[in-house]
Write a structure and sequence with these properties.
Length: about 190
C-alpha cells in the first residue's frame, strides 16, 4: 500500500476520537483535549513543504486529504518534488500517530522563546519514540481558550532537541473518547 495513503488512513481513524489530558506541575492542574480535523493532516505530513507541487499546495486541505485517501494523490507523485527530502522523514512515523498518542509519552509546556530561531507556534510539546528516534508532536489551540488543542506539527528529532529548557508536566489522567459512540477509554489514571 502507498505509504502516504497508509498515513492518511491512520489519521482518518483519529478523526472520530478525542484525547483528554489532565496534567500537573508544581501543584497546578492543566486540562486540555486534542481533537482532529482532516485539514490538520496537511501540515503533519509536511505537505506544506512541497512548494513545487500544485496538487498539494492549492485548494482546501481537507480536499487534499480526501484525494490522498482515494489514491488521486500518491506518494510516488509527491516524491517527484524537489523539496520531498524536507518532509520524507515524517511519513513513516506519522503512520503510528495513534499508537504514539495511546502511549503515556512525555509532555512539556512549549515556550517559543526558548527556541528563538524556530517559527513553531505551539502550547504543548509531546515527545515519543519511533524505534530508536525521538519524535516531536506540537499542539496548538484550536479555540480561543486553549482547552481544545490540535496537532500543529510533527517530525522526528534532527539537530535540535526541542524539549531542552521546556517545563515538563506530570501526566495525571488520559482518556481516549470515541466521538461517535461517546465511549471513554481511560488510558492512564494517577488520580485514583
Amino acid at each position: 500500500m502507498d505509504l502516504l495513503k497508509k498515513c492518511a488512513l491512520g489519521f482518518n481513524i483519529l478523526l472520530k476520537h478525542k484525547y483528554h489530558f489532565i496534567l500537573g506541575r508544581k501543584g497546578k492542574i492543566k486540562e486540555f483535549t486534542i481533537s482532529f480535523d482532516k485539514s490538520d493532516f496537511h501540515h503533519l505530513a509536511g505537505l506544506h513543504k512541497l512548494k513545487d507541487n500544485a496538487k498539494v499546495q492549492y485548494g482546501k486541505r481537507a480536499d487534499i486529504f480526501d484525494s490522498i485517501l482515494t489514491g488521486e494523490i500518491t506518494l510516488e507523485q509527491i516524491q517527484k518534488s524537489e523539496f520531498y527530502n524536507k518532509m520524507e522523514n515524517r511519513i513513516e512515523p506519522l503512520c503510528c500517530l495513534e499508537e504514539m498518542l495511546d502511549n503515556n509519552n512525555l509532555i512539556f509546556h512549549y515556550n517559543e522563546k526558548v527556541n528563538q530561531y524556530s517559527v513553531i507556534k505551539a502550547d504543548y510539546l509531546l515527545e515519543n519514540r519511533y524505534f530508536d528516534e525521538s519524535v516531536f508532536l506540537f499542539l496548538g489551540a484550536r479555540g480561543e481558550d486553549g482547552k481544545e488543542q490540535m496537532c500543529r506539527t510533527f517530525f522526528p528529532k534532527q539537530e535540535i532537541d526541542y524539549t531542552q529548557g521546556q517545563a515538563k508536566y506530570t501526566l495525571l489522567k488520559k482518556e481516549k473518547i470515541n466521538c461517535e459512540t461517546h465511549e471513554v477509554e481511560v488510558q492512564y489514571n494517577r488520580l485514583m
